[in-house]
Structure formats: structure tokens, C-alpha cells
Amino acid sequence: MARELTIGKIAKLAGVNVETIRYYQRRGLLSEPKKPHRGYRRYPADIVEHIRFIKRAQVLGFSLNEVAFLMELEEARACGMTRRLALDKINAIDQKLAGLTCMRKALAALVQQCGTGRSTKRCPIIQALGQSEYSRTAS
Q1: How many alpha carbons lie under 13 Å from residue 21 in its C-beta half-sphere?
Q2: Is the torsion defined by CA of 23, 25, 27, 29 positive or negative?
Q3: What is the pLDDT of residues 20-40, one digit of tens each?
Q4: Please, what are the domains in the chain?
Q5: What is the C-alpha separation between 137 and 84, in angstroms, rounded?
Q6: 25 contacts: CB under 8 Å, gap ≥ 6
């Protein structure tokens, strides 16, 4: 029989909080073993890899709903769909990067206008942020 562990031990091995495991259970990402009449629930040791999979997917930008879908795709052995989801995620990241690049350029231009920051007039950055042209380009 495979080694079974308590939720606390699972959390420690997976590098997460016990509440994270409970949250994943509520979201349907992990199953919850039945509680014996007396004692603690015992989890199979392989649940640690499931939790690590979830965390790695989140680090790559996948939402928990997308993680659930990825888990379904794994069960179905649907590599093509998994690839499509990953490509969609890459496109979303590229869009975010483009937006961040625009934000950085706009902010750098404001900093350039500011000069030394020792102006006795109103701060150029604060002044520019109050103008409607920046609120339109930032959205």
C-alpha cells in the first residue's frame, strides 16, 4: 500500500500552507479523503506532485480555472488542446509585455521632463498625470 500522509505533512512537502490545500479542495483541484471515525484524514503521497503542478502552472500565469482545464486535458491525453492553451497564454503575456513597455516609455518621458526634481513649480509628473491625455493613453 502506498504511503499516506497527513495534510500538514503534505503541505510541508509541497511547500504550501495547509489552507492552500483546503482551498484547492474547495475549488475541485484536489480530492479530499474521507475522514475516519477517529483520527485524521490520510492523503496519498502522490498528491504532493499534484500540488506542485498547480503551483508551477500558476507561476506560468495560468489561473486556477485554467489549471483545472489542464488537469482535464491531461486525463484525456489531449496534447493538442494543451498546446493551444499554452500558445494562448504566450499571446496574453506578449500583450501584457507590450502594455508594460508603453507604460514604461510614458513614465520615463515624465521622469525626463521632471529633470532634477528641485523645481519650485508644480511637479511635472503630478501635473502630467492630471492631464486628460495621459489618462486616455494609460487605459
Answers
A1: 24
A2: positive
A3: 999 999 999 999 998 887 888
A4: 4-77 (1.10.1660.10), 83-138 (no CATH)
A5: 31
A6: 31, 32
Question: Given this model, what pLDDT does residue 109 score?
Answer: 87
What distance lies between CA 107 and its chain's CA centroid? 26
Contacts (Cβ under 8 Å, ≥6 apart) of 67: 29, 53, 54, 57, 58
Q: Give pLDDT tens digits for 96-134.
A: 999 999 999 988 988 887 776 566 677 878 887 887 665
Total residue length of the chain? 139
CA 39 remoteness from chain centre = 34
Long-range contacts of 64-73 (CB under 8 A, 24+ apart): 64/24, 64/27, 64/29, 67/29, 68/27, 68/28, 68/29, 71/29
pLDDT of 68-103, one tens digit each? 999 998 888 888 999 999 999 999 999 999 999 999
